[in-house]
Structures are given as structure tokens and as C-alpha cells.
Predict the structure.
Amino acid sequence: MPRGRPSRESIYRQFAEALSELQRFGGMPLPAESSAIWDDIWHLEAHNSTAIEGNTLVLREVEALLDRRKAVGAKDLKDYMEVLGYGEAAQWVYAQATAPDGYAGEGLVTITEVRSVHQQVMQRVWDVAPHPDATQEEGPGSFRRHDIRAFDGGMRPPPWIEVPERLSTWVDEVNLFAAQLSSLDVGALDPRDIPVRLAAIHCEFERIHPFLDGNGRTGRLLLNLILVRLGFPPAIVFKRDRVKYLDALDHADKGEYGPLAELIARSVIDNLHRFVVPSIAGPARLVPLQALVVPEIGYNALRQAARRGRLDAHQGSDGTWRSSRKSVDAYLQQRYSRE
């Protein structure tokens, strides 16, 4: 493990503390009330999740396409349609953070919703570039009717005839997980429980591979559907972590969920600190230093200032430094005065 890199167990503890902190702030903000938060997540997720699958659009092109429906650049039409379809599906997923479409009483996720997410993700791109091996029964939202060879890492999808039953079992497991969480105090759980369970759920969906194409994008969106309906921030797997992510899926397929659980936990923590906490915490409220980063000063500089006593901050028993926006503004003002 590289020097200075937090251990996996410490990441799990940070994940649990982040969720407790979010609950103290009153939970995730409404998408309608905090559109800037969700738009930033939307752009990054649509860009990175499609880039993992080979999409060539850069972030500014994704932003222009999603915000203004403007195709900037000279990329293949297929690439634009991939991002547009994914972006539309992601918007529906984010809306479920506060306005679920009738899932109450039916469980956290339904098979109909799984198929609907895939249809939203794939319909636009399928219209211009359908899968060459697809039958009429295998379009967007329809289960595959082909067997798929084992992947390079060894993951072996089941025969297509088993997909409906396997996916039904997967949905039952997701809903059981949600029911167990709702009956427990999240703060009383072993810190690793939630990330490891999420990793197992995500890996099993990818193992089932219920559709002929688009399973990776659909699986990552379903993971975020589960997260936001549980009241957590969505996760973003960055394209720079593609190899790490695929390797983590291979380990999870062999029963070693730690690498994938850590990747998911890190992403949720990062999104919470980067996008959510700065917008929902008042100027005098103590929050982790990661949530107070601004263009004028980065995390390492804030931590050094806290350690030296120049920034009014407090280090908790978990080792996390916390300060407030008000204290950071005061420190920056003093620093500029000295300069």
C-alpha cells in the first residue's frame, strides 16, 4: 500500500461517518432546490460512465450536449447519442432521491425499473447504431437471448434462459438489503457492511449481464438508483479508474469484495464532500476540510494550516479535521493580508 494512503478499514469508517454527517445535516438536498449540485454530478457521471465504455466526448462536449443539446466537436453521432441517452436516464435516477415513482411498498427497485433504465440508456444510440447481433426481441429494455462468453477476468454470465430468474433474485436481494437498513440504526452497523453489500449487489448485476449491450452503464446507474433511494449521494467511477474498476469487479466475482467496496465508498465520500456538504452546511457549521476546498486553497494546504494552528479547526477522534466556511474565509483574508 502506498505510503500515506488510508487503509481500506479507515475508508469504511469515513464512509460511515459521512453518512452520519449527512443525516445530521438533514439528508440529501432536493434536486429541484439544488440543481447546481446535481448538474455537476450529472455532467461528471455521464462523461465518465460512458467514457469507461469507449465514448470519446470530453467533459466540455458533454456539458454542451446535456445543457444546450448542442453537439460540440466532430465526433461520431453514436457518441453523442450514448451520452444523451445516459444523461436522460441519470436525470430520472437523481429525481428518485426525493420523488420516487411509486416504488414505496414494492421494494427499493423493480424489474420494470431495471428494464426502463436500460431502455433510456440505450434507445437513442440503438436508433443509430443497433447491436449487429441483436434479434428483434433484444432491443433496449429487453433481455438478451444470446449466451455470452466468459470475460477476460473469468466472470461468466449465465445462459440467457436463466436471466429472468437470476434478475428476479437480484431484485429480491436489493429489496431485502433496503429493508434491513430501514430497520437498523445505520450508525450502529459495522462500517464495512454497507459498502461490501453494495459491491456484492453491483457485481451480481454485472455477472448476470441481462442485456445484450449496455450492461455496464445500466449497472452503474442502478447502483446510483439504490444509493439515492437510500438517501446517499450517487457514486461516479472515473474513466481514469477504469482498469482499477474492472479489476475490482473481477475480484468481486471471485468473492473478494474489498477493492470494489472501497472504490464505491471513496466515490460516495468524494461526492458528499465535493458537491453536497458545501451547499447544505451553514457558514459556521463544522464540516470535513475536504468540503471546504476552494480554488484559492486546496485540501493539503488547509490541513497544514489546521495542524499549525493558523486555521480554526478541530481534529476528531476519527482523525478527520473539521472547520467551517467562516473560519476558512477568515484564514484566507489573513493570509492575503500577510501577502
DSSP finds twelve helices and three strands in the chain. The mean pLDDT is 88. The beta strands are 287-288, 314-315, 321-323.
